[in-house]
Amino acid sequence: MVHKYSDMILAKINKTVCELGPLFLVQDLADSIKFAVLMWILTYVGALFNGLTLLILGLVGVFSCPIVYEKHQVCKH
């Protein structure tokens, strides 16, 4: 069981590394610039909020989205 889950996790890590490789190795200049700008913006976000605050805001957002969806959903008959 552990071997199965470790293989699944390793496959996901390998897939992620393969997808992020071109960003770090500048194979596509436009994507690398977008990634660099995103990281630069995230440094300012990190300066304003610490990680725990972002985690709390994320959890509040995740649990409030279904409530907002239920209130504004259109019923189809």
From TrEMBL:
Any one Gene Ontology BP term: neuron differentiation
TM spans (from-to): 37-69
Compartments in which it is found: Endoplasmic reticulum membrane
Record's keyword terms, sorted: Endoplasmic reticulum, Membrane, Transmembrane, Transmembrane helix
Example of a GO cellular component annotation carried by this entry: endoplasmic reticulum membrane
Start and end residues of each Reticulon domain: 1-73
Membrane topology: Multi-pass membrane protein
Major location (coarse): endoplasmic reticulum
InterPro entries given in the database record: Reticulon (IPR003388), RTN1-4 (IPR046964)
Protein name: Reticulon
The organism of origin for this protein: Parambassis ranga (Indian glassy fish)
Gene name, Swiss-Prot/TrEMBL: LOC114431382
